[in-house]
Amino acid sequence: MAKSSASSTASPLAPDASATPLPALPATYEAALQELEGLVARLESGQLPLDQLLTGYQRGAQLLKFCRDRLEAVENQIKVLEGTELKPWTQA
After folding, report:
1. Higher confidence at residue 2 or residue 77?
2. SS3 for 65?
3. Which domains does the chain have, with CATH numbers?
4. Per-residue pLDDT for 88 more than 70?
5. Which listed residue, 13, 58, 82, 86, has the most CB atoms within 10 A of its CB?
6. Under a CB-based contact definition with an 8 Å cutoff, are residues 63 and 35 in contact?
7. Which residues pair with residue 45 across a beta bridge?
8. Residue 57 pLDDT grade (very low, low, confident, very high; cuts 50, 70, 90)
9. Do the beta carbons of residue 29 and residue 72 sit within 8 Å?
10. Count of other CB atoms within 10 angstroms of residue 58
11. Could you tell me if 70 and 87 are in contact, meaning their C-beta atoms sit under 8 angstroms apart?
């Protein structure tokens, strides 16, 4: 029994392997946040074509992860020296 040719084609919702890669991440948290804010404004405007919406969403997810990772790294670095033991900083 022959397989259907439709089963061998890619899903129309699958990412396009030939799509251009996303730009490199910004060097700083502030630059990433600024780019993310601008991107959100463009996405919310409702004026982007569907393919640009998808690319924008992917870039936004990448920038959001970068910002969250940077914040987590800073949180882990904020420590108060108490005796010989380092512990996470807590606001009194």
Report:
1. 77
2. helix
3. 27-88 (1.10.287.1040)
4. no
5. 58
6. yes
7. none
8. very high
9. no
10. 13
11. no
